[in-house]
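Q: I'm teaching a short session on how sequence maps to structure, and I want students to see two examples side by side rather than one. Could you give me a first protein with its sequence written out and its structure tokens following it? Keep the formatting plain so it prints cleanly on a handout.
A: Of course. Example one:
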Amino acid sequence: MRSMIHRLLQDSNQRKVELPEATISLRMVPPKVIVLAEDELPDDCVKIRREADKKAIKARIEKEGGCTGATLTNGYETISIRYT
């Protein structure tokens, strides 16, 4: 339905139609960036995201008894259903 309305507005050279129920208008969507080769981007165009390594954290807690800034849950019980 949206594409049909879009085409009707274009074909009739109208940018906006005001109706009692709504106003329908065409608008330009700003250009979006498409990254073609992330490894070729300059450093000032890349975010370096710090992400927790949960496997390493769990290993440290189990080995050393703790890890600053993290803890383990008590775990929980669940059911398992296997269909044959």
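Q: Perfect. Now a second example for contrast.
A: Example two:
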Amino acid sequence: MLTFTDKQVLDRISSLPTFVGFPSGPMDVWIRSKADKFDVFDDKAFTYECHGPDKSPKFVMAREGTTNAGSYYLVDHFADPRGCAVLKSDTIVYDSHQFGYHHQKQNNPAYVQTRPFPYFRDGNRNHRAEEMPPEYHDVIGANIHHAGLNTTVIKNWSAGCLVTANLSKFQAFLLYMRSKGYPALTLCILKEW
């Protein structure tokens, strides 16, 4: 994946049709790799602290992960007969996630989807997560959570969630969010440009 400056990332977000200003609170920006390597954590997540439209967001941390499903759900076991969920890129949804628990398990803290985020269903099993019409718009449990200690293969860690590959990096993200009182999180997904 290319390396982007904060200015490039923020300018790209500002150009989105769904952008109406930077939020007051944290924002997670996930950049989806053009390469879209099958079953590989090749996307990047960047957390920013935002203070509304009049102040530039401040970079907090980066982590590696995925915005795509792994082989288990993308090819082998559809959770929905229409195909695997693929969240729409080049989109921002304000306050889309709240602190909670992935699969409602108390030992699995996460940021859970609480507002609709646009997505597609990919049912062709061609080893690529593709944004294929029609577009859907509802809450599907596309949570922000972690994989294993230092996971390299997505497999069944994601059925359309945003998953951090490294546990300690995700714990650092949660510690930061806790230091802010677990506020709502704005999610933006960008396609690598």
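Q: What should students look for in example two?
A: Point them to this: The chain has one domain: 6-191. Also worth mentioning: The helical segments are 6-14, 71-76, 167-179.
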